[in-house]
Amino acid sequence: MRGVIEFSGTVLTAPDQERRGLWSVDGRLTFTRPAAPPDLVLNGWVLPGLVDAHCHIGLGPEGDVPDSVAGEQAVTDRNAGTLLVRDAGAVHDTRWLQQRPELPRIIRAGRHIARTRRYLRGFAVEVEPDGLVEAVRKQAMAGDGWVKLVGDWIDRDAGDLSPSFPAAVVRDAVRAAHDEGARVTAHCFAEDTLDDMLDAGIDCIEHGTGLLPRHVPRFVEQRVPIVPTLINIATFPDIASRAEAKFPVYAAHMRALWERRNERILEAFEAGVPIYAGTDAGSVIGHGRIVDEIQALHAAGLPAASALDAASWAARGWLGADGIAEGASADVVLCERDPRLDPATLRDLTHIILRGRQLHKE
Fold first, then answer.
1. Is 64 a residue whose pLDDT tops 60?
2. Which of 29, 87, 327, 347 has its CA 20 to 30 A from that of 243?
C-alpha cells in the first residue's frame, strides 16, 4: 500500500497555474481531500516529475553497457528529478528497466539508424540507403512509438558534414514509420539536412544547430519541435579542435554552428517552435544533468518559466504523459522555492515521489 500523501505547499499545474490542496492516494493524485488521514505530509513547491526528452539510458561511450550500468544511469537521472525519459536510441534493451517501479518511466526508441561507417562505432544499426526503410520498420516495432535516425554526420571523403541518406529515401522511411504507428526524430547538425527532414514530414529534430531563417516558418507550420541538447552542443569546440588537422572545413563548420547555438534556439522559440529539454546523456554527457539543460535554455534567452516548461508540463503533454491532474500517477518533485523564478532550486529537491512512493537518493 502506498497510502495517503498530503502536499501542503503550492502546486504548479501549469507554468501559469497554481493550486492548493493536493493528495496522493494509493499512487494517484487527487484534489479532493481523502477521508483517511495522511500517512505523510510534504511541504514545498510541487511540480510534475522532470522530463529528459533526449536521453540514452543503456548507452555508454563505447556503445552497449551492462545491466548494472544501465540501472545506475536510471537512478542518477531519477535522483536529479527526471521521472520521464524519452530514449533517443540505445543498444541496450531497456525493457527490463520499465518493470522497475522505483526507476523513471522510459519511452523507448530502439537503436539509432545510421549510414554505414557514418556514426559512432557500436552505437547504431548501420545500413545503406536501400536498407533504410526496412530498418525503420524494424526499429518502429521494437520501440515505444519512436524511431531515431542519424540525419547527418561527417563525410570523411568530403571533409564536412553531409546528409546520411538521400532525401527521397528519407521520405520513404518516415512514411514507413508512420505506417507502423511510430514517430521519427533525427539527429541533425547541418543546415541542408533540415530541409530534407522537413520535406519528409519528420516529427522532431534533435540538436538543430543548422537552423536558418528559411527553416523557421516551416517548423512552425508543421509543428515540428526541436530538442536542442545545449549541454551537448557545448562540446563542439572540443570536437573541432580534435578534427582540425585532418578535417579543417568540418572543424570550422562545427565552430560556426556552436557560435550561433543560442541565437538559433531563441529565434525558433520566439517564432513559436516547440522547444523541449534533453541532455543527450549516455555517451559523452553524464546522466542526471536535466537542470543544467534547463539553465542552458534560460541562458539562451528563454524565460525561466519557459525553460522549465520545456522539461515539465509541455514536455509531458507532447509525449502523452500525465502532468498534475485528477487521477494522474503521482509522479512529482518538490523544491523549496518557486522554480519558475529560480530554476537552480531544482538542484536540491526536497522530495521525489514516483508512482506514489517517496524515494530517497541512493
1. yes
2. 87
